[in-house]
Amino acid sequence: MALERTLSIIKPDAVKKNVIGEILSRFEKAGLKIVAAKMKQLTKEEAEGFYAVHKERGFFNDLVAFMISGPVMIQALEGEGAVLKNRDLMGATNPKEAAPGTIRADFADSIDANAVHGSDSLENAANEIKYFFNDSDVVSH
Ligand code: RTP
Ligand code: MG
């Protein structure tokens, strides 16, 4: 497996529940390192741009409204096979279908308020990290 970086967002529902630390701890315990991080209140334009791939979908407006409903925590994670590893830790998009012990099974309330975002491919990960971080904001350790 190769060393990869992926973008993770702790969504407004999980920030409101005060479980940022519990979620970050799961990444660290799985061997993923936090190599960039910030709290941010997304603007409507930032959320629309980030999820632009979904703009023709029926859920797009609800998704954008949810993502700007409160601050998020955005982090770049680094580790062996980081993209898939993060998706495995997250669980299925719909928490009702998420495997026990995954972040969404434990912290998400619904398919809309589903606690975390994670890049779905290495290529998207690189673009998503660039969307939120300058090269100099990402460290190695
Ligand atoms: P994310 O991008 O946030 O990590 O979520 P994902 O890959 O698991 O799911 P994706 O298909 O990329 O969808 C992005 C977000 O849109 C909402 N969604 N709602 N009502 C629906 O059928 C539906 N499908 C997707 C979810 O909140 C999902 O996280
Ligand atoms: Mg997605």
TrEMBL record:
E.C. number(s) listed in UniProt: 2.7.4.6
Matches recorded under Gene3D superfamilies: Nucleoside diphosphate kinase-like domain
A Pfam family the protein falls into: NDK
UniProt subcellular location: Cytoplasm
CDD domains according to UniProt: NDPk_I
Essential cofactor(s): Mg(2+)
Catalysed conversion reaction: a 2'-deoxyribonucleoside 5'-diphosphate + ATP = a 2'-deoxyribonucleoside 5'-triphosphate + ADP; a ribonucleoside 5'-diphosphate + ATP = a ribonucleoside 5'-triphosphate + ADP
Active site: 117
Highest taxon listed in the record's lineage: Bacteria
GO biological process: CTP biosynthetic process; GTP biosynthetic process; UTP biosynthetic process
InterPro entries: NDK-like_dom, NDK-like_dom_sf, Nucleoside_diP_kinase, Nucleoside_diP_kinase_AS
The keyword Lyase belongs to this UniProt entry's keyword annotation: no
SMART domains: NDK
Broad class of enzyme this protein falls into: transferase
Keyword terms: ATP-binding, Cytoplasm, Kinase, Magnesium, Metal-binding, Nucleotide metabolism, Nucleotide-binding, Phosphoprotein, Transferase
Gene Ontology molecular function: ATP binding; metal ion binding; nucleoside diphosphate kinase activity
GO CC annotations, alphabetized: cytoplasm
Positions with a binding annotation for ATP: 11, 59, 87, 93, 104, 114
Recorded family membership: Belongs to the NDK family.
Role summary: Major role in the synthesis of nucleoside triphosphates other than ATP. The ATP gamma phosphate is transferred to the NDP beta phosphate via a ping-pong mechanism, using a phosphorylated active-site intermediate.
Record text on subunit structure and interactions: Homotetramer.
Name by which UniProt lists this protein: Nucleoside diphosphate kinase
Annotated organism of origin: Luteibacter rhizovicinus DSM 16549
Annotated gene: ndk
